[in-house]
Design brief:
By secondary structure, this protein is of the alpha/beta class. Helix content is 39%, strand content 22%. The structure holds succinic acid (SIN). Keywords: Oxidoreductase.
């Protein structure tokens, strides 16, 4: 289906509903951020398709939950193998639809596949428990059962990994899943669904419904009692709206919302490590990640040498065509992101800040930028940037930097650079975030819990935690009298 895909062709994509690839009456144009070209006409699913998908999901659920864990393991691991085999193709699709550089896209495919491998194994470890009963004639057994059909609303910034992180854990648990991919990245999701088919995935277990009108489509899912869990990655306002909608039929929610990650660099840190990890944590995916460093606090006594080295390393990053193997940073995903970055920079400059490198843009291509901040009230320190701009500000005491770091409603990721073990523990325990990277700017991996506290979300994806989100606890009481 995708074998003809090249940089210069237009593709028509369908939705995956039940066992079929269906065409819809309406379609929408998919525009590449590389050059603004229309690269595809995408199925625009609406209420009719949503109902068909829920029916198929419910029907498939009865069969899938009864399917042995060995079969779940076989299909999921076959899916993972196919994903890795199609690494180049997937990286090209991502480059085309959301601008991720090919070399980074390939890493994302490995990351995406790692969740499928992990959950293929995890399916076998949904252990129940027996508990000593209060009376000799009774036996207590606790089982875990899949919650039911799931709706996943996935983001454009990691269009492969966020699909597999949600889908593999739900499917391993015995759930069926309907994916509503971001309007900007429907092709990656539908391609993954075609690989699911190839891997022998049964009909109705994984469906993909792209749309240009998410509110109209998702209303049907929100209102339908049969959908028992919603897994969403995206913004805080949308997450809150989904939480409200889910309450109407008391669906479970798994919400991965935004971040405003601080990175704190102490004078005792290994500076080369701190710079390498800062670059990694900021410029991965052109800064378009919820866990991206959003503000860097550097201890005053090292701020000058630190900044000059940081600028030197940032200037080495290559901005350009995501299809070129040398490119580190591709275009931003859209005009809105560009406007936001320009307005944050204008604000910081008005408040006495200074651009140390970058700052310029051409079309959606924004140069990797380091900006010195002198006023802590600058918007750039307090709002999610979602772009390749790193604000740096100095601090003098540990106590002050902890309080600045925590002064946010966000609570996803945070980073500490230090060689002092006692300080590392103190900071890890003081920072109010779901993730703390200690001398580590890239803590995400399939084995670990990913998720935030405060307004950054509810629940965890990844590792042993991710599968539990899709399981209900059932208690059996045997009276043997
Ligand atoms: C995200 O920031 O949206 C996800 C990135 C990750 O999984 O590391």
């Amino acid at each position: 289906m995708y074998s003809q895909l090249t940089k210069n062709e237009k593709i028509i994509k369908l939705a995956k509903i039940g066992n079929s690839w269906v065409d819809t009456l309406d379609s929408f144009e998919l525009i590449s951020p590389i050059d603004g070209r229309v690269i595809g006409l995408i199925a625009d699913c609406g209420p009719k398709e949503a109902l068909q998908a829920i029916d198929a999901s419910e029907e498939a659920f009865e069969l899938w939950k009864a399917t042995s864990v060995d079969t779940r393991y076989q299909i999921l691991s076959h899916w993972a193998r196919l994903i890795v085999e199609e690494k180049n193709q997937l990286a090209e699709i991502m480059a085309l639809e959301m601008g991720k550089p090919i070399k980074e896209g390939k890493k994302e495919v490995d990351y995406a596949a790692s969740f499928v491998w992990w959950y293929a194994e995890e399916a076998k470890r949904i252990y129940g428990v027996t508990i000593p009963a209060p009376v000799p004639s009774k036996r207590i057994v606790v089982l875990y059962e899949p919650v039911g059909p799931v709706l996943a609303i996935t983001p454009w910034n990691f269009p492969a990994a966020m699909v597999t992180r949600k889908a593999a854990s739900a499917i391993a648990a015995g759930c069926t899943i309907i994916i509503k991919p971001a309007e900007r990245s429907p092709l990656t999701a539908t391609f993954l669904a075609s690989l699911w088919d190839k891997a022998g995935g049964p009909p109705g277990v994984l469906q993909v419904l792209p749309t240009a009108n998410p509110e109209r489509l998702c209303k049907v899912f929100f209102d339908d009692f049969r959908i028992r869990k919603i897994s969403f990655t995206g913004s805080i306002p949308v997450g809150k709206a989904i939480y409200k909608e889910a309450a109407k039929t008391l669906k479970g929610v798994l919400l991965e919302l935004g971040g405003n990650a601080p990175m704190i660099v102490f004078a005792d840190a290994d500076i080369d490590t701190a710079i390498r990890e800062a670059i990694q944590a900021k410029f991965r995916n052109a800064g378009q990640a919820c866990v991206a460093v959003n503000r860097l606090y550097v201890e005053k006594k090292i701020s000058e040498p630190f900044c000059s080295k940081l600028v030197e390393e940032t200037k080495k990053l290559v901005l350009g065509d995501p299809f070129l193997p040398s490119t580190d940073i591709g275009p931003l995903v859209g005009e809105q992101s560009l406007q936001k970055i320009h307005s944050l920079l204008a604000d910081v400059l008005e408040k006495g800040g200074k651009i140390l490198c970058g700052g310029e843009s051409q079309g959606l291509y924004f140069a990797p930028t380091i900006v010195w901040v002198s006023d802590p009230s600058a918007r750039i320190l307090n709002e999610e940037i979602f772009g390749p701009v790193l604000p740096v500000i100095h601090f003098e005491t540990e106590r002050e930097v902890i309080s600045w770091s925590n002064a946010t409603n966000y609570g996803l990721a945070s980073y500490v650079m230090t060689s002092d073990l006692k300080r590392a523990f103190r900071l890890s325990e003081s920072l109010r975030f779901g993730i703390v990277g200690i001398n580590d700017g890239r803590p995400s991996c399939c084995q670990a819990p990913f998720g935030g506290i405060k307004e950054s979300g509810i629940g965890r994806e990844g590792g042993q935690w991710g599968i539990k989100e899709f399981l209900e606890t059932k208690y059996l009481s045997f009276n043997l009298d």
